[in-house]
Input
Amino acid sequence: MSESLVVPTMAEMLAQGTQPEVLFWVGCAGSFDDRAKKITKAFVRILNRTNVSFAVLGTEESCTGDPAKRAGNEFLFQMQAMMNIEVLNAYEAKKIVTACPHCFNTLKNEYPELGGNYEVIHHTEFLKSLIDEGRLTVEGGQFKGKKITFHDPCYLGRANKVYEAPRDLIQKLDVELVEMKRSKANGLCCGAGGAQMFKDAEPGNKEVNVLRTEDALETKPDIIAAGCPFCNTMLTDGIKHAHKEGEVKVMDVAELIANAQDL
Amino acid sequence: MSYLDNILFAILLVVGFGFFTASVKKIIRNINLGVDVDRKDNPKARWKNMALIALGQSKMVRRPVAGILHIFVYVGFVIINIELLEIIIDGLFGTHRIFAPYLGVVYDVLIASFEILAILVIIAVVTFWIRRNVIRLKRFVSKDLTGFPKSDANYILYFETVLMILFLLMNASDLHLQNVPGGYSHFHKAGSYPISQFLAPIFNGTSNELVGLLFEVFWWLHIVGILVFMNYLYFSKHLHILLAFPNTYFANLKPEGQFDNLASVTKEVKLMMDPNADPFAAAPVDENAAPAKFGASDVQDLNWVQLLNAYTCTECGRCTSSCPANQTGKKLSPRKIMMDTRDRLTEVGKNIDANKGVFVPDNKSLLNDYITPEELWACTSCNACVEECPVNISPLSIIMDMRRYLVMEQSAAPMSLNAMMTNIENNGAPWQYSQQDRLNWKNEN
Output
């Protein structure tokens, strides 16, 4: 944590006449939510350590429009999308990495039809590729022997069939990866998707995040790993609800990798 | 006089298939009430989906007990159709087991496999009945399934049991007569009867004439039963035995997370963002254009694949049992979304029939009269229902289209969502933070 983060913006890069290898799409949660900011920083620490040439849009980034679209406001979504596409195309963005599965899904699947064609990858896939290329080495470090369970974010897993990258990363840590009774294609939602994050739940007898946290706690984990800032919030709340804050931590896969490396 | 049977049989077939064709036409017409959507691209992937999912039952076995039992019933249904072909030929031409002389040993194998399948079907159907009525599995006793849907499921099971028993009794009486010393009438030795050979002894001590008559009774009841069952499909969730095939063929091939970008909205947004567009220009008037409606409030606003989905739904409830909102006691049930869509579509179809081919507004709609906003707002769009459906139905796409109507036509989103959307409009984030602060995290500890 001692070294300061190097976070160039696309504007700065352009001024220098360079184009980064990847554009890091931070997302609203990653930019503003106190918990999610830690995930953003952990990911940037890895990028800095591995000398990946990247840049962010900074103040030029805006909401992808995902929550508006899932709430049914197609107008607002397309306005956001077209504004973002103008910015991204102006910078001639080719490859985008993001730590938010909702941004990932929208940029990857819904932007092309509106004129935004990029190679979009989730940060777990990107970290996996860094390891595969030998640019990043990970050893168990402080997590060695810990029991970790991974919660599949719906918009990463079912929606886009990315199941293995986060698991491969976790296994690099020399830990015991345990699966919940519902995982991968059968995974249970954290309760935040479809704009639910921004509203109260309809009347029922339980909150979805509480149910999902129960799934996770059944595996008796030391850490619940997630790959989505919204899942992270929901599961953290679930852990508080179960009064397990002292025993179980909720961490993003990027944080696990960064912490294992003592970054 | 001796042709009376054959003529009667031919009339029965014509009537049976005639009614059936009329029903099919009505279903096709109703499905075509939906908005057009292109699902003819990539035929290779579509045929593959149909082969694996509908024909190969690949998604059924995600729940192994129901899946394997279902495969018994399904294979039984498909294979026994070969026997049905023989029955129809025999009925029309007054022959008896016409395939037997031509197929030889193959015929023995066929009949034997039909019999084994028939008994497997009975075992499966009895187990299904027990699961529904004795064990009362949660997804079968839900409040979605009251009244007709509940009885429908049982009727189908009773029907199948009776048909299979008739088939076995028909074979048993046939076998009994085949073994009459010196031969009896036209009952020549043919086929192999691994199951009904154990039933045949019940005819011992009965006169050959009576057994012959019983054979006729079983034979006729069996074929009449099949024709009645075929015509029952129109009213029943059992329609999936036919529609599962087109439904999997036309299913969405795109990633589950990709929601369509409404083209009508794209046009308007582009116009809005075009600096050269004259903001005061009147919109070009197209006399023939239907007034644009964003999202769906009734079945005619949905696309034809969504309507096909509704007719295909078997009400198995796998979607609902995997839905996070439903599991936490909320009102949303993806199965109910599909059942409501079908019920409303049937109602609209009846309205059209009653009014000589035109729909007369009935002051009802799918939204509110069938599906409430509370159900729609409970959805997390997690795609569990879509993933779970054994025949690739998407309740989520209907939920999303109806949310679009609520938001874009009625401005009826929950307050908190309106606040979120205002924030996105003003600050480019769902929370009330300034866009200028987006990079502040960089220097925070």
About this structure: The mean pLDDT of chain A is 96. DSSP finds eleven helices and eight strands in chain A.
